[in-house]
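Re: [ENG-882] Designed sequences occasionally contain unexpected residues at chain ends

Forwarding the minimal case from QA. Structure tokens:
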């Protein structure tokens, strides 16, 4: 991909140790979604790793939901129009916030790797930044198909036979 994609990752939690390679995986996910969606031009995405308390606070503040959740998306664009970083010319797509505690717990519950869960949440959130939503069932199905396609491309299968390698 010729266009420059800048993914700024910040870890604001201590609940879960961030395994080596997770940051690279998040970057690969962001790039894979943009490629799948034929996104053109340079882009900037901000990804924050938080804990359940941190994401609960954001959920309460921005969505009036006083519960923790796995991922929040804060799109900066609307209908394909984004703010532009004047220095780089990049479209600022928005912010992704992932609860690492929730990701760890969900990976255990679904019987797949932590990497797979973080990758999935990143892909899901990236689609939100690009304007997808899952209010109706058709959109939900379309999003799920795209998410699974990305997971396949990145070698993160959904099957429970997947073994995490340390």
């Amino acid at each position: 991909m010729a266009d420059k994609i800048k993914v700024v990752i910040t870890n604001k939690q201590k609940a879960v140790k961030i395994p080596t390679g997770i940051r690279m995986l998040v970057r690969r996910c962001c790039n894979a979604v943009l490629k799948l969606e034929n996104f053109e031009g340079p882009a900037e995405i901000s990804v924050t790793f938080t804990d359940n308390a941190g994401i609960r606070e954001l959920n309460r503040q921005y969505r009036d939901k006083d519960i923790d959740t796995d991922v929040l998306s804060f799109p900066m664009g609307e209908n394909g129009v984004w703010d532009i970083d004047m220095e780089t010319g990049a479209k600022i797509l928005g912010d992704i916030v992932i609860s690492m505690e929730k990701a760890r717990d969900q990976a255990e519950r679904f019987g797949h790797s932590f990497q797979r869960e973080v990758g999935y949440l990143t892909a899901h959130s990236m689609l939100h930044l690009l304007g997808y939503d899952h209010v109706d069932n058709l959109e939900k199905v379309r999003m799920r198909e795209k998410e699974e396609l990305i997971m396949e491309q990145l070698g993160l299968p959904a099957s429970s036979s997947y073994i995490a390698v340390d």
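QA comment: On inspection the terminal residues look reasonable. The mean pLDDT is 91. Proposing we downgrade this to a documentation issue.
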